[in-house]
Amino acid sequence: MHDKREKQEHQSTREILVDLMEEYGDMVLRVAFTYVKERQLAEDLSQEIFIKCYQSLHTFEERSSYRTWLYRITVNYCKDYVRSWPFRNLIPRSVVRPGNDRSMDSVSSQVVQREENDLLFKKVLKLSVKLREVVIFYYYENLSVNEIACVLQVNPNTVKSRLHRARKSLRHHIEGGMILEE
């Protein structure tokens, strides 16, 4: 850790940004996708997020990790975008569909598992934003409750409550009911 900090002190802003993009690019894309539910739009937002990161890199105070800082920027940027007039009124929302460009493995158990994961992920995407974001961070990004609370700037008990409500809603939906939008 100390070597990493020391290395970053000698890097230019551009070099730090390239390292952050390589290390966290997929994470930023996944989080953006959970908000906008369209791959191309999520890719565009990811680029904009890294531009914002580049512009703000000099303000990073090392009170948190780059990872947490990037999560916070991503969440705030995506929330602002989803609330924007163009997103709500101009952009047609496509139906979420499994990636057809992925090559299929020959092992049938892996195919079945992937289909089940895609189905569950589609159900997660139908949750309200507040429930969806905690599920994505907890189960897909492997953040702890405290890390999620830091990223979303809420109390850890709020995160626990949202996780509980999300699990309950998903369970209800999987068993044949409707998802509760909260």
At a glance:
The protein is an all-alpha fold and 182 residues long.
Give the beta-strand count: 0
Mean pLDDT across all amino acids: 76
CATH class of the largest domain: Mainly Alpha
The CATH architecture assignment of the largest domain turns out to be Orthogonal Bundle
Whole-number total of structural domains: 2
Structural class label: mainly alpha
Identify the notable features of this structure and list them briefly.
182 residues, mainly alpha, Arc Repressor Mutant, subunit A, 2 domains, 9 helices, RNA_pol_sigma70_r4_t2
Model description:
- The protein has helices spanning 2-9, 13-36, 39-56, 66-83, 85-89, 108-125, 129-140, 145-152, 156-174.
- Helices cover 71% and strands 0% of the residues.
- Residues 1-7 and 91-106 have low confidence and may be disordered.
- It folds into two domains: 2-89, RNA polymerase sigma factor, region 2, helix turn helix motif (Rna Polymerase Sigma Factor, Chain: A); 108-174, Arc Repressor Mutant, subunit A (Orthogonal Bundle), CATH 1.10.10.
Helices, strands, pairings?
Elements (H helix, E strand, L loop, with lengths): L1 H8 L3 H24 L2 H18 L9 H18 L1 H5 L18 H18 L3 H12 L4 H8 L3 H19 L8
Helix pairs in contact: 2-3, 2-4, 3-4, 4-8, 7-9, 8-9
